[in-house]
Amino acid sequence: MKTYAGNQFKELKIVLGGRELKYTLKRTGRRSIGISIDKNGAITVAGPYRVSETTIRELLEKKASWILDKLSAIEAQAAGSDGPRAFIDGEGYLYMGRVYKLKLIEDRLLKRPVVRLGENSLEVYHKVPEKPEELRAVLREWYVAQFAKKLEGRLPAYSQQIGVSPGRVTIREQKTRWGSCSSSGNLNFNWKLVMAPVEVMDYVIVHELCHMKELNHSSNFWALVGKVCPDYKNHRKWLKENGNKLTLD
């Protein structure tokens, strides 16, 4: 425990949504617990001296959705660029709400490029230097495959929870739509959703499945969405503010 100007600081860790996060606990004379996240993603919790660390952890877990959405928005902003991508070492690419740095690795034994996800990097193993458009195609193929795997595991579970049976399911690349549901129960999803936090991706899946019961945006529809996804408003807001950053362009 460090003390500065009468305040006590302690560095702690917590796992939220499968992510291990560091946060600074600041003990003060305030009466309530406050959580703040700066522009660099540093989390600070200001709490009264009398409140236990267990209580503070319970609050962080309760606020997990807000914290993760906030961090993902900061990371999405960091991954954004003012111009077209160059597909070079060090560029940031979003995957499941986190930014991974592109790492190009030469391997002359390969017949075709291979993409692997490292701890903090998105690694592309290739035989010869690839042109930007070729690297984009390789990465797109990998993203589509990853989204298909996520969808395969999550769609049946949410379908059962909502009580619907989807027809044909298609994965597409669209500029403005994240998903759609036809009157016959066929679903379309944008593969770029795999770049978003898992909670945001799940929201879109739930959204389209709920349209199988309510093919509108009535109060009944949103009530149904809210039963399965209580924080859907936060996820809608995240998509509205950061959806343009879910791209390989």
Automatic annotation (TrEMBL):
Keyword presence, Hydrolase: yes
- InterPro entries, per this entry? UTP_pyrophosphatase-like, YgjP-like_metallopeptidase
Q: What keyword terms does UniProt attach to this protein? A: Hydrolase
Task: Give the signal sequence positions.
Answer: none
Q: Where is the YgjP-like metallopeptidase domain?
A: 31-242
In alphabetical order, the GO MF annotations are: hydrolase activity
What is the designated name of this protein? Putative metal-dependent hydrolase
